[in-house]
Amino acid sequence: MRRKSPVLAAVLSFILGPLGYLYIGWQYAVMCTGVFLVFVLVLTVTDFPIPPWMKFMILAVLSWKAFTICSVRNHLIETDDGAARALNSFPIAAMAMSDLLVGIGMFYAGAVGVYAAALFLLDGNILKGLLTLLIGTPALVWIASMVFGLIAAGIDAVFARGVENLFRR
Question: Per-residue pLDDT for 165 more than 90?
């Protein structure tokens, strides 16, 4: 197996979104696209707002995860314990992308909470802004982590049943 550049993976995923994951492997690109669609579906069904600038924020999370996957891949190749071959499997890609789903959800919730607090503060509603920032935003992040965590657990149960998570070693 060949090492892959974490920086190049991050840049490609930031520029191309889920298609940037083709650099890591087709399994990752397919699962990333699926996870992205699940994220949009959940926000659409719950009628949660998606600010236009959010797509650029989400690309930062995609970049972070691509960087992490390549870093783990390179470490496993260096240690040569045989686990690196499993990284090219669909179950491992599903595990990595279910983790990405939780990260996207939490990041989105935090960004929306901070944005709402900033709007209140800019309108002169200091108390509402501070309460939104100090109580509302953490609550929103917690709810997002629970909702997307449950969906991620379902993804893992369907696609990665009985497989060790190599990213949490």
Answer: no
